[in-house]
Amino acid sequence: MVNAEHSVRGSATESRIGAARAVLWLVAAVLGVRQAAAVLTRPPGERLTDLETWIGEHGVLHVGGSLYDGDRFTGTPFAGLVLKPFARSAEQSLGVAWTFGTLLLVVAIGLVVARALPVPVSRRSTLLAAPVAISLLMLSLPVRNSFHLGQTSIIPVLLVLLGCFAARGERSGGLLIGLGAALQPTVLLFAPLLWLTGRRRAAASTAGTFAGLTALAWAALPGDSWAYWVHHAAGAGLGARPDSLANQSLHGALLRLGLTGPLEIALYLVLAAAVVAVALRRAVRYARDGQLLLAVAITGCAAVAVSPTAWQHQLLWILLAVVGRVGTRASDRMLWPVLVVLVVTLPGSMLLPNMAPLHPLRDNALLVAALAAACAVPFLSLGSPHFRRPVPTEYAAPVAARWSRVPLLPFWRRVLSRPNLLLELLVIRVGYSAYSHIRAAATGSVDAAESHARQVLSLEGALGIDIEYWANRAVVDLPWVEGFFNFYYTSFHFMVPLSILGVLYVRRPSDYRWARASLAFATLLALLGFWLFPLAPPRLMPSLGYIDTVHGPQDLANPDYGAMTAVTNQYAAMPSLHFGWSLWCGLVVVALAPRLWMKLLALLHPLLTVCAIVATANHWVLDAVGGAAVVGLGFGLTYLLSGPRRLRLPPGAVPPQAPARPDGAAAAEAPGGRAQAAPGGSDEPEPEPARA
């Protein structure tokens, strides 16, 4: 009977893992097709631009003279020697064959990485690793850049991975890595890693292969080899300006800081030597620990950091560093992988606000991530007791997911711990930046927005709530009221929600994620409204006579309606997130505040906000109704996925300010969802889920 029950549970788990794996492979396939289509649908002159300058009809490989006369070709002489045969079939190579060849290379990297994960990995992780790895590779900036430009920088990464994890014998592995070094010289840094980890035949084979292929290129292209290795100092002076933001290396960062000449070169060499020494020492330690993939990633990060030029398509090593585990606490475990994924998939402007003191960090985000992985991040060893079991930081036991039979949704669960602060700030920043970009992109025509505005005004007239013109004129006639509402409209929209989230993070960690999730759902639903129903607010209806008290007179003869259009989408009015976020603030405080006066004060915020958005002619009354609707749906989705907010204490727990019952019955419900310590000193009780 017991065996049968275990068999049923095992088959159910297997079916869920199989369904999740199928979904993830579908996602990877869609991303791959989308990436290939994004290249092939471009006009011939706009796709594979770097490859076109090499082997196209007028590419440098067709032109007599040196490969490096025009600084358009940035590869090694050996790379030029390899690419020359393709010059005769440029049209065929620049089309479907090259794009799908790159796609196959990315898939191969994902499969090798999935097989190279360290030994203590669960079966679920092993089955899901390949599609997840391929999906992340497709989303990463280096791979997207390689697809768009037609670059070959994916090949050295694959050669190193094959040499370390797939080749039979040390000599064949060294041969593959040496071939990668001939295409990208900094890959030669893997030779000392192999030597120091006991694979001396592989190290010698790597060095010998690199030397032999480079000598072959010298013999075939002596002038180009001299130009590359001597005149341009191993390619340091080729391509775009070395101080451009595209060069994410130590050399490029020092140039951007204003250092030039011998001082910059000396400082660069000293820093590069220090990075190589520290990175190799760490890589050797993790390789001997059984984490060879992490050691390879650390070495690759050091290689791109110390290279004179490290362009975006060469920085794939940073993504591979995601395999390292960091943090002994459960709340800290996701910080490093999320940070790596965001850095290699998003531009720096989305990661950090546009503030002058942060520009050096923002402009060198990829370099900082590479240096951190190579030299600073304290990855856990396999022998650490926290490698697979981090210290729990939950304040109560998570509630089981409601839709347990739906694939992937069982992974959503109610988490009742305080998240890592840096991770939370990063996610909030990226989430708001993505929201701003989508909101700005969700533009409609002026005619459609004005037509929708007339429809809304007509519906309000039928309902008898078309009070916008009366309210706007009444406020204009009272300057002090106008000033108050202008100040309220511009000052509290962000400050109040962020303050409430901050208080919950510190004082009510069990409720923080619940409140944040409901706000995020409401904001996502609002974006659908902006896309589907562009709406002109009253202040942008030139024929109705409204006065924009906040932004001042607008140039209504301009189709874009003035300078504010450059800041935000002027037609993202339905639903009103000004009112929606204020309503969310009021409801959260009403649900959690311990005092009646706090609840009443919180309800003033949405009341004053709706008065401000209507009186200043920035929203219609029905926009506020739409804001209330998305907030309600946000709370509803949170309830469906995570269960009720309130939790029940386990049997034997003592509620605050109440003695334990002598009969040992279950204690009363904890106010505000805060779990209390059970008798015996445990500060992490396991409450049973609350009933709906």
Total of DSSP H or I helical runs spanning 4+ residues? 28
What are the low-pLDDT stretches, counting only 5+ consecutive residues below 50? 559-567, 648-692
SSE run: HHHHHHHHHHHHHHHHHHHHHHHHHHHH
**Biggest sheet details:** none
Structural class: mainly alpha
Write the layout of secondary structure elements.
Blueprint: H1 2-40, H2 49-55, H3 77-83, H4 90-115, H5 123-139, H6 141-149, H7 154-165, H8 170-183, H9 190-196, H10 200-220, H11 222-231, H12 250-256, H13 261-288, H14 292-306, H15 316-320, H16 335-345, H17 348-351, H18 359-363, H19 365-376, H20 421-441, H21 446-463, H22 468-476, H23 479-491, H24 495-507, H25 509-532, H26 577-592, H27 596-615, H28 621-642
Helix pairs in contact: 1-4, 1-5, 4-5, 4-7, 7-8, 8-10, 9-10, 10-11, 12-13, 13-14, 14-19, 16-20, 20-25, 23-27, 24-25, 25-26, 25-28, 26-27, 26-28
Structure, briefly:
With 692 residues, the protein is mainly alpha-helical. The protein has helices at 2-40, 49-55, 77-83, 90-115, 123-139, 141-149, 154-165, 170-183, 190-196, 200-220, 222-231, 250-256, 261-288, 292-306, 316-320, 335-345, 348-351, 359-363, 365-376, 421-441, 446-463, 468-476, 479-491, 495-507, 509-532, 577-592, 596-615, 621-642.
